[in-house]
Amino acid sequence: MPTSTQAGDVLAERYRLDDLLSENGSCRFWRAHDLVLHRPVSVHVIPADDERAQPVLDAARRTGPVIDRRLLRVLDAEAAGGLCYVVNEWGQGDSLDALLTREGPLAPRRAAWLVAEVADSLAVAHAAGLAHGHLAPENVLLDQNGHVRIIGFGVEAALRGLTPGRLNVDEIDLVGLLYCSLTGRWAGVSRSAVPPAPEVHGEVLRPRQVRAGIPRTLDALCDQVLNPRQGPAATRPSAQSVRDLLRGYVGETTGTLVPVPGGHAPATRAFPPVDPSSVPTAAVPVVPVDDPAARAGRPEAAEPAEPAEPAEPAEPAEPEHEDPAGQAEVAAPQDPGPAAASTAPPSSTDLPTEAGMPVFHEDDEVDWLRARTEKPTPPPPLTDPDPKPLFAPDPPEGQPVRRPRPGSRAPSAPDYWPWDASQDSGRDAGRDSGTGAVGRDTGSWASGSWGTGSWSDDRWGTGQGLDDTNDRVPGRSWIRLALIVAACLLVGVAAVAAYQLGLKPPTVGSDDDPTATASPTAVEPTPLADLVADDFDPQGTDGRQENPETVPNVLDGDPATSWTTSTYEQNFGPAGLKTGVGLVVDLGSTRAVRRVVVSTEGGQTSLAAYVTSEAPTGVSELTPVGTASGTGELTIDLNEAVSGQYVTVWLTLLPPVDGGFRGTITEVQVLG
Asked: FRET pair for 251, CA 20 to 30 Å: which of 101, 115, 517, 634?
């Protein structure tokens, strides 16, 4: 047989190579078909003269007799025809790295359950002196039934040239799987395509620093193993310790053993017996809180599996249920009794988890929101409010249309109505005109001589009579108030008109001019004295001086003397070498500045004025209080006085002269 392989080749007249899955140097990984048992298998093929060939065969022979429901078993290993090949059970599902790429980091409880399953298999293997050697996320598989399967036990490390029996590497990679499941980053020793975990000063960040909501128990476990500064290597937890801790965190599982259909029960096991509590493998187990039947379901469901009789030869399992891994069958009897049916809930029903939703506290502690044991009471049905009538209802038969308010007394005359001015009783002119007194608080009519319709003088029964108020009319007090206000307005208008008409017209030059005193005139600003000036050239290169010897001429009051700038070949501005030069006038102390007057010569000049409390070192960070442009005397008036000690006159445009541009200032005045 040639040493090269291609699709369609048959190894040992049994394994037909179908699909090339990966290739690493001279090693090829194939999906093949077992022509004898008609099942898919995976095959690693490597040349027989490769230095890794013998270690691969040795690793396959060590792990071949091992039977564990989570391991993809070694089915065959041989070196023939110049090729060395190892045949493994085929696993259908998603590897952990692919699952994290598609769904992102797992929930803490699901991640803890998944790693606890892997730790259970490693604990048994480590007790037998065997190690996986390369426990990366790519070698942990979740099959279509939610079971955890481990790929390449022992063989993967041999294919990579690693020494066997690396138990300590398995322990670190095991916790690295937990870190990877929680954060989506790989922190183990073995190489993986998953992005590496972030590090600071050579230490892996804790999971809680990478992703919020990680429980403290899982965070502390990852930090203890992945950052060895926490203690010597001897204190690193073993796979069994990790399994027990994670199972304690996950809590109660589904309560039923998930049956694995088909296959035959193995005759021997290379590992020591496994605790029955570690047998069930299911997707993240869920169980309702405080459900006695579910909590008691696990031991009850396990009981039928122990005395289970093997299936009758006449009723073999269907081919699609055949177990290519040869796992131990854990199935219920063919005809379960009523007790078994009542204790094992259907596996297809998704029960609520015991801790389904995290609740985060201010101290970073995480609790889990428990499911309700009883349905909440439904809210009362909505009822329409009673309709309100648009109009007042008709009074009962024999009752008057208008009735007195509660607490008041009605008049004895039934035909009485105080606002009925057209009614003529023939007894009282006040009543006929609608006159009467308004009672206190209720607006009812007070005592009056209305014949039989008069009111009682003591309507509250206090024993004190009321004054006769027959001259009051409802609303008359408001009318009187309105009349008083109108009269006051008329008097005010008349007084103003009389005052205006009585004024004499003012004469020119007389002191009676009303405009002279109507509004005070603004005080003219006055020049400030005791000023000191200095040249200001922050962008200069020759000592930052600009003719300092002639600067005092701008404050001597003599327009014949002046201060001039240097002669520049280019004018100021963005295209020039400078943006400007100027003078700084020291006022001696902080003063209010209202006007700056600058006398110039030579032509068109532009300038800006700045007022600051400290001597300026530049104008790029300052805001001008005003600008001016023109020839001769340039004045900058400020709308409001600006306080400061230093006034900077900054020339931004110089007039042209022979040979360039030069500015000239004869006088500077600062007024406040």
From this structure: 101
Please choose, from the candidates 599, 604, 600, 649, the residue with its C-alpha nearest in 3D space to the C-alpha of residue 625. Answer: 649
C-alpha to C-alpha distance for 477 and 418, rounded to whole angstroms: 16
Q: What is the DSSP letter of 663?
A: -
What is the number of other CB atoms lying within 10 angstroms of the CB of residue 374?
5
CA-CA distances (angstroms) from residue 622 to 585, 610, 626?
16, 7, 12
In eight-state DSSP terms, residue 138 is: G
419/474 Cα distance (integer angstroms): 9
- Tell me phi and psi for residue 339, to 5 degrees: -65, -45
- Looking at per-residue pLDDT, the higher value among 437 and 25 belongs to 25
What is the distance between the alpha carbons of residues 311 and 582, in angstroms, rounded to a whole number? 109
Of 4, 75, 88, 1, the C-alpha closest to 46 is 4
Query: 15: which strand partners?
Result: 11, 34
Task: Let me know: does 656 contact 590? Beta carbons within 8 Å.
Answer: no
Six-digit token string for 451 = 């014949």
Alpha helices in 344-448 (DSSP H): 429-432
Name the band, by pLDDT with cuts 50, 70 and 90, for residue 389.
Answer: confident
Residues 130-167, buried b or exposed e (16+ Cβ, 10 A)?
A: bbbbbbbbbbbbbeeeebbbbbbbbbbbbbeebebebb
pLDDT value for 509:
52
3-state helix, strand and coil shares in percent for the chain, rounded to the nearest 5? 25, 20, 55
Among the ranges 240-254, 384-398, 467-481, which has the highest mean pLDDT value?
240-254
Q: What are the structure tokens assigned to 13, written together?
A: 């007249």
Residues forming beta bridges with residue 355, ordered by sequence position:
none
**Which residue, among 328, 332, 236, has the nearest Cα to 274 in the 3D structure?**
328
- Between strands 83-89 and 93-95, the pairing is unpaired
pLDDT at residue number 613: 92
Q: What are phi and psi of 651, to 5 degrees?
A: -80, 125
In which residue are the tokens 């502690």 written? 365
Cβ neighbours, 10 Å, residue 270: 16
Which residue reads 């990966």 in tokens?
22
Structure tokens at 149: 């399967």
For 505-580, strand residue ranges (E) read: 532-536, 563-564
8 Å CB contact between 76 and 63 = no
* Strand arrangement, sheet containing 83-89: 10-11, 15-24, 27-34, 39-47, 83-89, 74-80
Strand-by-strand arrangement of the 140-143 sheet = 93-95, 140-143, 148-150
Q: How far apart are CA 563 and CA 34, in angstroms?
A: 107
Predicted confidence (pLDDT) at residue 365 exceeds the cutoff of 60: yes
Residue with tokens 């428990």: 370
Neighbours of 206 (CB within 10 A): 19
Q: Is the pLDDT of residue 1 over 50?
A: no
Cα distance between residue 464 and residue 231, in whole Å: 98
SS3 of residue 518 by DSSP: helix
Half-sphere exposure of 641 (CA within 13 A, CB side): 14
Amino acid at 21: L
Cα 119 from Cα 107, distance rounded (Å): 18
Task: Name the 3-class secondary structure at 9.
Answer: coil
Q: Distance between CA atoms of 362 and 30, rounded to whole angstroms?
A: 53
501-548 pLDDT per residue, tens: 876 555 555 455 544 444 456 688 889 888 999 998 888 877 778 888
Residue-wise DSSP of 294-350 = HHHHHHHHHGGGTTPPPPPTTSPPPGGG--TT-PPP----SS--HHHHHHS--TTS-
Place of tokens 């604990």: 123
Dihedral angle sign, alpha carbons of residues 78, 79, 85, 86: positive
